[in-house]
Specification:
CATH architecture: Alpha-Beta Barrel
Number of helices: 15
Order of helices and strands: EEHHHEHHEHHEHHEEHHHEEEHEHEEEHE
Bound molecules: beta-D-fucopyranose
Helix content: 25-40%
CATH class: Alpha Beta
CATH superfamily: Glycosidases
Largest sheet: 8 strands, parallel, barrel
Strand order of the largest sheet: 2-3-4-5-6-8-11-12
Amino acid sequence: MPDLIFPKDFLWGVSSSAYQIEGAWNGDGKGPSIWDWFSHRRGKTARGETGDVACDHYHRWKDDLDLLKTLGAGAYRFSVSWSRVIPEGRGNINQAGLDFYDRLVDGMLERGIQPFPTLYHFDLPLALHKKGSWPERDTAAAFGEYAAVVAARLGDRVQWWITLNEPMVAAVLGYMYGTHAPGRRNPGSYTRAMHTLLLAHGEAVRAIRSASPRPARVGIALNLSPVHPERDTESDRRAASWFDVLSNHICLDPVLRGAYPPDLWRRFGPFAPPVRDGDLAKIAEPIDFLGVNYYTRQVFAGRWWVPIMGGLMVRSKQGEFSPMWEVYPPGIGETVERVWNDYRPPMILVTENGIPVPDAPDGNGVVSDPERISYLQRHLRVLQSSMAKNIPVKGYFVWSFTDNFEWELGYAMRFGLVYIDFATRKRTPKTSFDWYAAVIRRNGLEDSG
Ligand code: FCB
């Protein structure tokens, strides 16, 4: 059997995000973000861990770019910290912050790596949080201004832009369940945050295109997952289809069709957000690509039914599990095929895919992670068979380049191709790093391996 070779111009990359890796949380004029504040509060993160230093990427970025070059990555997805660039979220620009990203972009280009900045990855400037946070409509306008500042500075070299990372996750975990910053638990805050985030995306698409000195390709990264009923019963199907609306359609429909799912806000009754005339046209500003973050599927059962929010749903556990989620490789194919068949985005990039493994160096200092290799390999195989059906997937980014701060779960969830000893910050490429380097070199998978 031949090797599974990917298209000639396929982009092989890795992903990261600012708060999870940079550290220097208050260095060189950076303002605090909601994560700086939240992680410093008692009991909000595992073992009280914070991103104060994280991987110290802010100081070790050259070493990290050298490692990326050794890996052979063609693209690097990172995020820009809004409050490093504009400490108060609006107004004064912190030149030192912008300079950092400027050097980073130059460093990537010198090493032949395409920069893929994401402008928002969960780290709202604290000053804007105090003025109403994401539920406040004006935050979308502030985001547009910030997007223009970054695009004006980096747009002569950056071609690919991602506005937001996972707005649904930011809204649900930050404002409904309160497990992420800013830790609110309020259905009205959640729905308003969701709507403002989507508006912010639309604002940023336009702002990037008009501020960038060169043509920009702009997209958004959505966390998508197939939602399956646990059993083939009416109540399980109903629970699964409502959860599908809440996790997938809620962003896909407005961004790619210019409409919210028909029943969505009606079901929230008094908690529905104020949607103004013209908002959906803004949100649906055409994008150049859709970023898909895929990790797992969701399996739901509906145990009983109440009208608001769809009743109690039970998430069932079956199958193979990582420390965080079910491992379900067919779901990556189901997701990209569905997105393509139902929404026809101009192009799809898998902007995150990966698995947490409790890796540790052995006696010889080798970090061996066969579970990660198996996970990535199985997902790439499925992806390849979807691509063989002419689904335009143009790139794939592993989450994550290095181990990092996994939000409320702290440093114990290691997603990296590179191991980090968080006492010394020493970097050690894992065996998955060598495996992925070989995939990139060969532009595909060995059929047997
Ligand atoms: C995604 C986030 C990313 C990381 C991975 C594991 O939802 O975008 O920051 O936490 O999950």
